[in-house]
Amino acid sequence: MPIVVEKLSYTYMQNTANAHTALDDISFTVGDSEFIGLIGHTGSGKSTLIQQLNGLMQPTSGRVLVDGYDMNDKKQRAKGRALIGMAFQYPDYQLFDSTVFADVSFGPRNMKLDEAEVKRLAAEALELVGLDPAEMMEKSPFELSGGQKRRAALAGIIAMRPKYLVLDEPMAGLDPGGRRDVLELIARLRAELGCAVIMVSHSMDDIARSAERIIVLNNGRIRMIGTPEQVFADTAELTEIGLDVPKPMQLAAMLKQRGAAVPDGLYTEESFIEWLGRAVKHA
Amino acid sequence: MDERHSMISVENVKYTYDGAETQALRGVSFDIERGEFVAIVGRNGSGKSTVAKLLNALLIPEEGTVRIDGMDTIDEERTLDIRKKVGVVFQNPDNQIVTTVVEEDVGFGPENLGIPTEQIIRRVHDALEAVDMLSYAKSAPHMLSGGQKQRIAIAGMLAIEPEVLVLDEATAMLDPLGRKKIIDIVNELHSKRGITVIMITQYMEEAVDADRIIVMNDGLIDFTGSPREVFAQGDRLRGIGLDVPVIVGIRDELIAKGLIAPCDVLKAEELAELLCPLLLKN
Known about the structure:
Chain A is an alpha/beta fold. Chain A contains 12 helices and 10 strands. Chain A starts with a strand and ends with a helix. By secondary structure, chain B is an alpha/beta fold. Chain B has a single domain (about 10-225), classed as Rossmann fold (3-Layer(aba) Sandwich), CATH 3.40.50.300. In chain B, about 40% of the residues lie in helices and about 20% in strands. A 6-stranded mixed β-sheet of chain B has the order 6-7-8-3-9-10, sandwiched between helices. A 4-stranded antiparallel β-sheet of chain B has the order 2-1-4-5, covered by helices on one side. The interface between A and B is large, with 39 and 44 residues.
């Protein structure tokens, strides 16, 4: 069963002079093991939206159903929330225990499992993200590098075996190698655990490489929703709302301007290079 | 002003943080000339942020010397002069904003340096104008976006009227628009006012316009060169946790497939110019 967002609206400080509509009539579904990219400039409502998905905030109107559990209902919310794993932009806020292993065990322990099962889940999660469980029994989260912290925070989430991974800018602040590793890790976790991924990112190139579907938010509304091919086809609209376009598409647009016949949908490096190879042979 | 020495001269500098087992810097040397625009790139933990803190005497080398316009940072009597000359903007704007009104925040630096009030007023005005935030002079910093806060942090540095501006991953937490605005402001400060710029970054795209790139790895300088020279070495960069800009990655693939001849283009426009004749043969 999917996540269903139905006519969701949210107003900060409702009924005051400072009332501000952050989300306005949002509807979409997230299918099982689907990879959704959520994009929009700062202030477009992305962060507010993902906090609605796990019931950290409740809508002013409309609702969120997680596998049928209505997140407006207090009892059902706990069940829905158990299916969602959330990672925030700054891993430092999610790591607080004395050792990394204790941190990763925190979630499963809260699920009231027996100690052996808690240990097993934590060790498995650490291995999945590429950290050595034995080493992490000793290590303080503060001794980790930026990329390792990101991994540890992800391990803490997947130790709870979520069905949906909600990731807010999981690559922010990482170097190019770290970005590549985390992106590959997310793809691997999805393949091995079968979970759906909802990823917020400012990097259109990263979104183009990973997402099956893209939701574009602007001023609290869904401006576009579709496959990368559909969304990135409208370069002018993305630019107008302050977003980037993947680099291969920028290049394609420049070739078009110069009179070359370039097809739509060349949003990844691979597709661009492959097309160019064919086009040059036939020119 | 003495023109015989470099604006910045770093000589065989070593540094270890308190309680750390390994050295953050293991012997780093470089010179930066007046008016140069230098990018320093390196993976997380390579030592590049430590360099930033050494340049305005926030840290003092445990071995070797750092000289700013001839002044040794170890000389405490020159610390204030050094900080007038070198302004550093860090990654998280929230840690750099100290007051509750934007204009007070921008004036905080010059006030601490004992600049007369009427001069501070002019400097704050000019600095806010340079970062396009004049209309926010009376606003509360916490109501601003991350990108706007970072522009205020830059204005705070400009109000000190430094000759060197160091940006330590100042765009890392910003969205593409916020990042572009900062880069445009920095490019203008460099080209129009001749400010020496040291841009420490993980975004390879941001290093493309530099005069020179210093590549750091594991507390040492791995190699240096012009952007065209540095980005000709994709494998070497990937081997130390870095990469080339996306356009250069496409260029290298096209060269490897024999579709274009080896070349050193860095930007989409240049690559488009190169590809057009291949596509428009008939």
